[in-house]
Write a structure and sequence with these properties.
Layout lengths: L1 H9 L2 E2 L5 E2 L5 H6 L29 E2 L2 E2 L4 H13 L4 E5 L2 H4 L23 H7 L9 E5 L4 H14 L9 E3 L4 H7 L6 H18 L3 E2 L1 E4 L1 H5 L4 H22 L3 H4 L3 E7 L3 H23 L11 E5 L11 H15 L4 E3 L12 H17 L13 H24 L2 H7 L1 H19 L27 H15 L2 H15 L6 H9 L4 H12 L9
Helix pairs in contact: 3-5, 5-6, 6-20, 8-10, 10-12, 10-15, 12-13, 12-15, 13-14, 19-20, 19-21
């Protein structure tokens, strides 16, 4: 693999007109532009220009399309289709009951089973979800937060029963609870116990899953809630610092877990601002980590991130226009140096993506990779007066915002006071006023409006899925050792009252076929439910 990457990086690339393209501006050029000692070259700290010297010449970004709907069986079919089309990694969307730690049989799950993602009640669902998919080869990202430990335990047991050692698993769990309190709301437990579960995951994975990213600190949902680019960077990195402080307080060393921290950003419509945002975030994270923690491992201060284009920018009006929006956003993500990318389907403002729209979304990435020339050069807009100026402005503004958060005592204290929530609400309100006044034009919404075409076909969900899941759960409960399950669930409650890592016992519970709802309820008896001050 290394030889392939090296030969690829030395390959002479040319434009369509035959002009040779250097992989990056030379060090002489960089110094002439004021970049002393070449510090802003790709692959060199503070990584403003990218975390790899050759970037996509060595290895293209991972095309990781987010997918999940209805049953595990149906989602498995979609996964296999995407892999056959050339996707290199999987990204799982879970339904709302799963995100909230509810079994499909729970009365609160009614009407939501399989609607916005796949329904997972036990490890048997997880085994169906990944049937015939080589988990030691394909990396998997799971967008799950409050019950992240349980879903990762299911993934581990699923692989184990396929004969795959957990040390060979590669992927990411989102596991970012702070942004749930800020912007999204799928929290279960209060912040203190939630942070404890996250540090349990850090500790366990450091010793048992060396190739697993234990957290994907997410700015995506913060941006979807209406934040500005600066706020997205500031609040996301501030949350990252809070997780690091919690792990260090637990007794972990920075270099034990920080290399397994990754990030997840949004990419919105402003092409140059988004490129600059990614560049500024890399430098700011590097500076914050080295100033506050002095790591010995260089990987501890490298910001690696996944990008998803902005769902909030998609319009139900003239939905095919979304293909253009997605293309612009995806290109900005690549020019900004993302490590993996999801491109939204054009019909997602209407319903779940169809096979046709999901294929177009993936092909958009492949065209950018193979036909646009954007992958030929690291940091292609480095040196642009506009991009360099915006990078500096975003860096300084985000740093100032983090300083304000620190005045509260850190991200968690600021969240409890409602600071980030208020600032996001204000930014969202200003943005909406601009659209309603016509100052900001959105094609098909308040500008270039035409008669609507026939509505696109949308993916439908089987209304009988909840009943099917209920039948499956009943069968599993009848076949399992219920005395063993009761004993393990009681052990989980006891461990939650201590400082002992609860993750190994959760894996035992999953292996014994306990449901997600049973495990969450055992924890809930100790931790309680969280009721935010704002009431959402």
């Amino acid at each position: 693999m290394a030889e392939q990457e090296d030969s690829g990086s030395k390959e002479i690339r040319k434009t369509l007109g035959g002009l040779e393209i250097p992989h990056v501006a030379t060090e002489k050029w960089a110094m002439e532009m004021g970049y002393v000692n070449g510090n802003l070259l790709p692959g060199m700290a503070p990584y403003t220009r990218g975390i790899h010297e050759k970037m996509y010449r060595g290895k293209i970004w991972t095309m990781r399309q987010y997918a999940g709907f209805s049953s595990a069986k149906e989602t498995n079919k979609r996964f296999k289709m995407l892999l056959e089309l050339g996707q290199k990694g999987l990204s799982v969307a879970f339904d709302l009951p799963t995100q909230l730690g509810l079994d499909s049989t729970n009365r609160m799950s009614e009407g939501e089973v399989g609607k916005v993602g796949v329904a997972i009640d036990t490890v048997e669902d997880m085994k169906i979800l990944f049937k015939d998919i080589p988990l030691d080869i394909v990396s998997t990202s799971m967008t799950i937060n409050s019950p992240a430990m349980i879903l990762l335990a299911m993934y581990i047991v699923c692989a184990e029963e396929m004969g795959i050692e957990s040390s060979k698993l590669r992927g990411t769990i989102q596991n970012d609870i702070l942004k749930e309190y800020i912007a999204r709301g799928t929290h279960i437990f209060p912040p203190g116990p939630s942070l404890r579960l996250i540090t349990d995951i850090f500790e366990y994975c450091a010793n048992n899953l060396p190739n697993w990213n234990t957290i994907s600190v997410s700015g995506y949902h913060i941006r979807e809630a209406g934040s500005t680019a600066v706020q997205e960077v500031a609040y996301t990195l501030a949350n990252g610092l809070e997780y690091i402080d919690a792990a260090i307080e637990r007794g972990l060393e920075i270099d034990e877990f920080a290399p397994q921290i990754s990030f997840f950003f949004n990419c919105h419509n402003d092409f140059f601002e988004e490129i600059s945002k990614f560049r500024a975030a890399r430098k700011l994270w590097y500076d914050l980590i080295n100033e506050n923690y002095s790591p010995k491992n260089p990987k501890s201060s490298i910001l690696r991130f996944h990008t998803q284009v902005a769902g909030v920018s998609l319009t139900a009006q003239q939905p095919q226009n979304n293909i253009s929006r997605v293309t612009i956003q995806a290109l900005a993500s690549v020019c900004g140096g993302t490590q993996s990318l999801h491109t939204n389907s054009f019909d997602e403002a209407i319903g779940l993506p169809t096979e046709k729209s999901a294929t177009i979304a993936l092909r958009t990435q492949q065209i950018i990779a193979e036909e646009s020339g954007a992958a030929n050069v690291a940091d292609p807009l480095g040196g642009s007066y506009l991009v360099e100026g915006l990078t500096s402005k975003i860096y300084n503004s985000a740093r100032n915002e983090i300083n304000k958060i620190n005045e509260y005592g850190g991200s968690l204290k600021a969240i409890e006071s409602g600071y980030q929530q208020r600032k996001i609400h204000e930014a969202a309100f200003e943005f909406q006023k601009e659209i309603e006044s016509g100052h900001r034009k959105v094609v098909g919404v308040n500008y270039a409006i035409t008669e609507e075409d026939e509505p696109s076909l949308v993916q439908s969900i089987d209304s009988g899925l909840r009943e099917l899941q209920s039948i499956n759960i009943e069968k599993i409960m009848n076949d399992r050792n219920n005395d063993l399950c009761f004993e393990i669930l009681n052990d989980i409650k006891n461990i939650c009252n201590t400082n002992v890592n609860v993750f190994p016992k959760v894996i035992e519970a999953v292996r014994a076929r306990c449901t997600i709802g049973e495990i969450v309820d055992a924890m809930r008896e100790v931790f309680g439910n969280y009721r935010p001050p704002s009431g959402f």
